[in-house]
Amino acid sequence: MERIEVNPRILGGKPVIKGTRIPVYLIIELLAAGMSSKDIIEEYPELTEEDVKAAVEYAARMLKGEFVEVPA
Predict the structure, then answer these.
(1) What's the angle, vertex CA 49, arms to CA 46 and CA 54, rounded to 5?
(2) CATH number, domain containing residue 12
(3) Could you tell me the pTM of the whole model?
């Protein structure tokens, strides 16, 4: 989870891709709306394929109720 950051000063503490203000939930919403990873990266060029995968992994772990430790 090195690519995910939770900081109370960024988007009220919502999980974001580290070094950006792009929240994990936005990436999941875009994927659910039918965008591909490539589409998302074209729309948000500061993201990488690994960032998109990290967002999906983070969301999956949270839904499974696993403790997810991310750097502050």
Answers:
(1) 100
(2) 1.10.10.10
(3) 0.88
